[in-house]
Write a structure and sequence with these properties.
363 residues; TIM Barrel; three-stranded antiparallel sheet; 13 helices; binds flavin mononucleotide
Length: 363
Amino acid sequence: MYNTFIRPLLFSIPADRAHELAVKSGVLISRSRMLLKLTNTIFTQENPSLRQTILGIDFHNPVGLAAGFDKNGVMVPLFQSLGFGFAEIGSITARASSGNPKPRSFRLPADRSLINRLGLNNEGVQAVSKRIKNIKNRDLSIPLGINIAKTHDPSIHGEAATRDYKTSFETLKEMADYITINISCPNTKEGKTFEEPDTLDALLRELFREKDTDLPPVFIKFSPDLTHERLGELVSVCENHEVSGYVACNTSNIREGLLTPADLLGEIGNGGLSGQAIKQRSTGIIRQLRQLTGGSKPIIGVGGVASGRDAIEKLRAGANLLQLYTALVYEGPGIANKINREVAGYLSEHGHHHIHEIIGTDI
Ligand SMILES: Cc1cc2nc3c(=O)[nH]c(=O)nc-3n(C[C@H](O)[C@H](O)[C@H](O)COP(=O)(O)O)c2cc1C
């Protein structure tokens, strides 16, 4: 149904418009108990072999929604009813931002990938925190991750950038089952990010300054473009603070090996690449993280997950949980349920009783 009717329709309009339509429909469904129940009946199946408790949080299955699809937390109940095991909203920033001018997202069908330069558009921490309080008061049974980033404004850098993160962190920490710090956004006018060891160290020192015992688990989200050496340095910094786990990875700036013609890529211009084109790079980072941490910290694997096979590859490389965004665009709303069924099928075919039996078995 999605492949035959809905995707061709959505792909006939610009990607930015298609996303707006998807959000509008998602909000409508999220407000209707009847529609949520119906979606839930179609898309949600429990499987004990996929259930895990990680950092004290109960995940019914490993497939989560990646940050960026529901930036303002307007349709979390929908993702629960679509069979996702958890949802990460955001990135949320201290100040509201309308992001970059459109067009700002582009499809690369030949690569089953996307390029986006949305520019961290979101309603800002005050508006989103009010909304999240309401969602949490409703019957949400999946864990809610909240992703925070620095306000999209190059004049905010250095210590001001750290304070900007801190504002969002302090406002949202009590509402989240976990918080993800998106550190791949620019922190200087030259475009340097928090993926520099000293800057990350200063940021984490500030965020963890209060020695708060009630903090939810904090994850750090890396870019897939980090060198082996830089990733090692950043993990060492994180291990000196109370970081609970890692999200690997964000979108990529590298354009190597794409099937999409170079002239089309030139027309599209800058932006973060996601989907199948970054799958291998992301799995490589997961494997390195697993080696660097010896499996002591949970890893959320994200980047090109679109099938049970992709999921198993990332789990075997060391991911404890998974997320996806681009596959929702190419495969449709049934994708989490499909992946869960395929992973559960793989486990039983190979004589495994539980998902943790395959995590990190291929490093
Ligand atoms: C249109 C779009 C917007 C995104 N916005 C965010 C964001 O605000 N914060 C963030 O941490 N990641 C963001 N991401 C990155 C995704 O969360 C994910 O890390 C990346 O797309 C790789 O996963 P995928 O291949 O399944 O899409 C965005 C991705 C896309 C495609």
